Amino acid sequence: MIKGKKILIVGAGGFIGGHLTNRLLNDGNTIVAADIKPKEYWFQDFDNVENHYSMDMKDINNCRLVTKKMDFVFNMACNMGGMGFIENNKAECMQSVLINTNLLIACKENEIKKYFFSSSACAYNKTKQQEVFIEGLKEDDAYPADPEDGYGWEKLFSERMCRHFMEDYGIPVRVARYHNIYGPYGTYDGGREKAPAALCRKVIMANKNSDDKIEVWGDGMQTRTFLYIDDCIEGTLRLFESDYSDPINIGSDEQVSINQMIEIIEAVTKTKKLKRIYQLDKPKGVRGRSSNNDLVKKVLNWSFKIKLNEGLKKTYDWIKEEMNKQGTNLSRFTKS
Ligand code: GDC
Q1: Domains of the chain
Q2: pTM higher than 0.85
Q3: Which of 77, 80, 97, 121 could pair covalently with 10 via S-S, beta carbons 3.0-4.6 A apart?
């Protein structure tokens, strides 16, 4: 367990960053938290943390300021979202390269002891994800490089920058390739939401309006592995404490199609079967993506625990509660 350390979390106002802040704080660390979002858009905000709201880490001066005297730095910050966002905002996604680059330079100058970079399954070669049910992606499948355009290229390039900062300057790095993380305190509307939150929201709305149908992007046969946030945080911290410095999958073994995910949501919320309206012109991303977890099981002795039915129920309940608070307005978290 990491305890008694001074830790900077960049992207702390975001979904994974917020949960990580909570955990590291509870474990007895001193946390400095920074995010480009203004205070009102942070998903989680803790009093006993040094919070830097509206701080743009693309500016190296900000990186230099907040990395001073830190033991560890977690870079959870990037301009991102689900397929609806990353397919239509490639230039914005790629600019996150400045966050990682400037942070690494500042960490080198301020002699940080260990650095974490949150990469993505979008770094994997697209041609290996063209079938509905694929073998899980192994870490080597990122090369030869042909990642998701925009967002995936940024992740792959930044992974490599981490590697070279370690090789050339001796900064220990840890890099996780996250496979579609979901759970409470994340985006569920406004355009950046990923499939689990979007589908929960749509089922909630159908129930609220006594509607008998929901809209689904694509034909619903596309597959993914989704990982619940608590498992993600546990895997992340185990990786951070390990001596493994190459990129590694943090994902589940539970590969499902989008249609299966909707069935799970209906089952755990006792919703009667909704008619699916398939929208074939919406962003679909790769046809099939799943995480091969052989390496992570071997080097971290870690595997996911929370199954989709449990995780989706918790996510659904949280989103429902938030939507009840908001009425018909956009979520208070969504800056649109
Ligand atoms: O958005 P996402 O969860 O991202 O979409 C998964 C699949 O669900 C896509 O094929 C999409 O078309 C389908 N889908 C069906 N209905 C909907 O209402 C909906 N909303 C959304 N968003 N999708 C719907 C993600 C990236 C992330 C991150 C992870 C890493 O790609 O967007 O930024 O890096 O990957 O695994 P996904 O899984 O394609």
Answers
A1: 6-181+226-250 (3.40.50.720), 183-224+255-289+307-326 (3.90.25.10)
A2: yes
A3: 77
